[in-house]
Amino acid sequence: MRLVRAFMAAALVVMAIAPTAVLAQGLTMTTAFPAVVADPGATVRFPITVTTDTPERVDLTVTSQPDGWDVSLRGAGSTVSAVSTAANPDVAGQISGEFTAEVTVPEDVAAGINEVVIEGSSESGQTETMTLDITTEELQPGSVAMAADFPSLRGSTTSTFRFNLTLTNSTNTQLTFGLESEAPAGWTVDARPSGENQAATVVVDAGADAQVQVTVEPPAAAEAGTYDMVVRAVSGAIVAETPLSVEITGSYSMTLDTTDGRLNARVSSGNPTVLNLILENTGTAPLTAVNLTATPPSGWTVTFDSDTIDQIPPGQQATAQANITPSAEALAGDYIITFRASSDDANDSIEVRTTVETSPLGYIIGIAVLIAVAVGLFFVFQRYGRR
After folding, report:
1. 3-state secondary structure of 277
2. What is the pLDDT of residues 367-383, one digit of tens each?
3. For residue 154, what are the β-bridge partners?
């Protein structure tokens, strides 16, 4: 009876221990995607999780890799040769650590299946290996492409041109592209990932697209014509480029002045005075339908020999006459008249100080009155002065 009881007690002890033994996992290494397809020249990254029964150090070694391949073990931005496991706050009951196996495929690799073997050895004496399979294929033409929504734009030299490009990565690997450009001398071309003003590179996942925005600014002196440029996305030996063009219609500007450069005039009340104006096209495109207007003081009139100048070619001038007629009641003094020249593309204005002088007829009448008074006084004194 005692023997039976002892046997039953031993069986209970074994049953109590058995679940713990079943739950024990020892050292394991896992990755979500242990087999991938990669292109020549690509870099493939395998995030690997290491688990142990208790927190401990696990030494890491790359025990096998194809000739000419580069395999690095990374963690926290550095190359590592061991990982420490600890309680995982995200997974209850798991004791783990993480590192990344970074595999760079040579440019001249042949198509086929390649293996990388990583070994982990724990302090408790356990050993685990992981095999990573990388299938390489020949990179097909057109695997990476870049295209613009509208590859040609049109405007003046004061315009800022913006192109929206789509960069497509049809390879089997995530690629990081640097952005480059070629443009005529004096032009500014800035290519950046859309929404990333400070970024100099763009990362595109395998089989995905990315948006690139290109900003183009022409030089102020650019002549009318079509200008070509190229934007490239470069990732190692992989290059995608797209041609762009900008048609400059010319710059628009003008100046308005008097023919002698003086911004003052002398007029007399009620009498017309001619002011000669000169307009110069200082842009690189023709100015059409240039209208002349003036804002005189109340009661004054300003007319032009021609209210509209049909066209002024680039670098050339046109003249116009303004007839200024002050109000008949205008008092002597200074007045301001604003002259404007405007077209659909450019405009300019000047202010002319206009001085109203007393009419010569007024002087004559005044002198005549004074003479008449003087003569009258003379006769008065002659007739009555001796009495």
Report:
1. strand
2. 777 887 777 777 767 76
3. 247
